[in-house]
Amino acid sequence: MTDAFSSPEYQPHHPPPPYDPFLPSAPPFVPSWPPQPQSAETMRLAVVGRPSDLGSLRGAYRRQRRAATFTALGYFSLFLLLSAFAPSLMTGTVSGGVPTGLLLGLLQLPVTCLSIWLYEYTARRRVDPIADRMRKQAEADARRGAAR
Predict the structure, then answer these.
(1) How far apart are CA 118 and CA 67, in angstroms?
(2) Residue 56 and residue 68: Cα distance in Å, rounded?
């Protein structure tokens, strides 16, 4: 038997909420009461050093970005400061009548390439090993969870 409140005519129409890219697409977590007991294995997996791995990955990636960014932007900022505050240096000539400003401007491309190389180098040496270790650990955890 249906009552008046469950009929389709009574259901109020609510427009969908506006799209917000920062809201998760999954429904909000609603804890069940009383809390479900967890096994010792589940609790051990939750306590293992995953936050420290994630923190070390974030730190390595942050250092990687800073090194590459400061290389490129530092040189470009130095070029702009010299252009603004040392015009006599920038208009001076090097060998063969080439102005120093032109030479420093042309050096921007090799410095940018150096910044890209530095980014890739630090990724291979610092970030990728941490990410690979975390990926292997997640795969092992998934296999362990599937075996249960």
Answers:
(1) 7
(2) 18
